[in-house]
Design a protein that fits this description.
With 321 residues, the chain is of the alpha+beta class. Among the domains are: 108 residues; 116 residues, Glucose Permease (Domain IIA), CATH 2.70.70. 41% of the residues lie in helices and 16% in strands. The protein has four helices and nine strands; from the N terminus they run αααβββββββββα. Strands 1, 2, 3, 4, 5, 6, 7, 8 and 9 form a nine-stranded antiparallel beta sheet that branches. The radius of gyration is 66 Å and the shape is rod-shaped.
Length: 321
């Protein structure tokens, strides 16, 4: 449908007035208050450290935290925001109220950051010092324990060594005492002689002829009951003991001057080796070998050679035969 309204007139005529721009509404200025500044400060506070690591880790973490706080404080203080504030009549040469408030707030934030950083560093240093002290104390305790163990072990070794020395000294002392006793007995027995048996009766003399011997009798016979003790007539050493044919069981003793004494026809041998002193029992009277009854056949052979008459030899030693 066609419109009956006339066409609008063009506004681009050269003599027409320019269209004015809309006036913007005035921007409200921000006057920071104490609560606003406190809120700004609160945004940069660090959470309280709940636990710290020992050693260098503690100081490193604390240092990073402190540097962070210092950076925030510096950032807050280095570029204060310039805000437009109404003139409160300070006059020439005085900062405006908005500049003064902003500067004070920034300074407070920076001071708070520095104080926090200082406290963090102090706490970190304290914890690091405590950790080092704890480590040093533990090390000293371990060293003391080790030293105590070593001292105890050393004491045990020293006591064992002392005991070994004492035992050795005791053994040596006992050995010296034994040797001294033997030497005293030896000296006491030198030149001492005894009869070869007791409760005897002489039944055959040296050189006596008889059908019981292939040659003349080579010793002296002491008739005594079977089992009567037979003694070594002088100090010496047993050089032979055992069965000897016609002699039966025989013991030979070699004395210190080389003379041998033979003890024959024994029923048993008490000593078969070793050193003997005068009067030591070496056997028992018997009737073994070529005999007619129990008796001791004694022979004396100087230097282990040809036999001699035992009777005068025993008499020469102070014995009554």
């Amino acid at each position: 449908m066609a419109s009956n309204q006339p066409a609008p007139e063009l506004l681009s005529e050269p003599d027409s007035e320019p269209v004015s721009e809309p006036v913007p509404e005035p921007v409200s200025t921000w006057n920071p208050s104490e609560e606003d500044v406190a809120a700004v400060r609160g945004r940069h506070r660090l959470p309280k450290q709940r636990s710290m690591s020992r050693g260098g880790t503690v100081l490193g973490v604390a240092t990073m935290a402190a540097v962070g706080v210092g950076g925030v404080a510096t950032a807050e203080g280095s570029s204060p925001v310039s805000l437009s504030m109404p003139d409160l009549g300070f006059g020439d040469g005085h900062p405006s109220a908005d500049a003064a408030g902003t500067t004070t707030a920034a300074a407070n934030v920076q001071n708070a950051g520095e104080q926090l950083r200082t406290r963090i560093l102090a706490q970190a240093e304290g914890q690091q010092s405590a950790a080092e002290n704890a480590d040093r104390t533990q090390a000293e305790k371990d060293a003391a324990g080790k030293a105590a163990k070593e001292a105890a072990a050393r004491k045990v070794r020293e006591e064992a060594a002392k005991k070994a020395i004492a035992d050795k000294a005791a053994r040596e002392k006992a050995e010296r005492a034994r040797k001294a006793k033997e030497e005293a007995e030896r000296k006491a027995n030198l030149g001492r002689y005894v009869l070869p048996t007791t409760n005897f009766q002489l039944t055959a003399g040296f050189g006596q002829a008889g059908n019981l011997w292939s040659h003349n009798h080579t010793g002296l016979d002491f008739a005594a009951p079977t089992g009567t003790s037979v003694y070594s007539v002088a100090q010496g050493e047993i050089t032979s003991a055992g069965w000897a044919g016609a002699y039966g069981y025989r013991i030979i003793v070699k004395h210190t001057d080389g003379t041998e004494t033979w003890y024959c026809h024994l029923s048993s041998m008490v000593r078969t080796s070793g050193k003997v002193a005068p009067g030591d029992t070496i056997g028992r009277v018997g009737a073994t070998g070529n005999v007619t009854g129990p008796h001791l056949h004694l022979e004396v052979r100087p230097g282990g050679g040809t036999p001699i008459d035992p009777r005068p030899w025993l008499q020469s030693k102070g014995l009554n035969v």
